[in-house]
Amino acid sequence: MRLNRFLASAGLGSRRSVEALITSGQVRINGRVVTDLATQVGEGDAVKVGSRLLHTQRTLTAVLNKPRGYVCTASDERDRRTIFDLLPPSWPRVHHVGRLDKESEGLLVVTNDGDLSLALTHPRFKIDKEYEVLLDKPFDAANRAKLLCGFHIIGGRAKLERVEILGPQHLRVTLNQGIKRQIRLMLYELGYEVERLVRVRIGPLRIGEMRPGEWRLLTAREIAALRAPAKMAAGRGAEG
Question: For helices 114-121 and 220-239, what crossing angle results, to 10°?
């Protein structure tokens, strides 16, 4: 197994991100500093980063229907409930891909697959995320064009890809950016407060009939579908 893949499988990040650990001389195999990215790790090799002896973990990817009132962090200094309270303690260490704020609900991917995390979060891959939104007052249809054209909020220039009006105070919106609290801030700029925000889709994954707090492991086919945009982008880059 190539060294960068080994480090990623041990939970240190994506294969691309762990390359910096290798080239900066922070990785040792059997006591020898290794900086060659093409180095192979054999069975029985002792791989260390600093004083930490690494072991590969079984790869695990799941989706969680995050309930309102839970925060996306492994530990919280204010002792609030976290999404990891909802997951089996026997799992290997996983991290959430993207986030939902405490008051938001819905679909969340958790994984220890660093490459999949990169495929879902890198801006160039433009993964759609779809939300249902309930507002504090009726939505003025004239504001739809403003959301689609975009404007500046805290965090940068923000825009939505699609806006469907499902009812007077009920929207379905799609974005492929990752600005913190983007939907809430955009609607606040237009004079609305978001009373409920539920993510119902990430790329090809839909929340379906999952109950709040429920999780399920993804199938190999679902994981391949999530990776597809990154693979297509890599193919276009190779052709260029």
Answer: 70
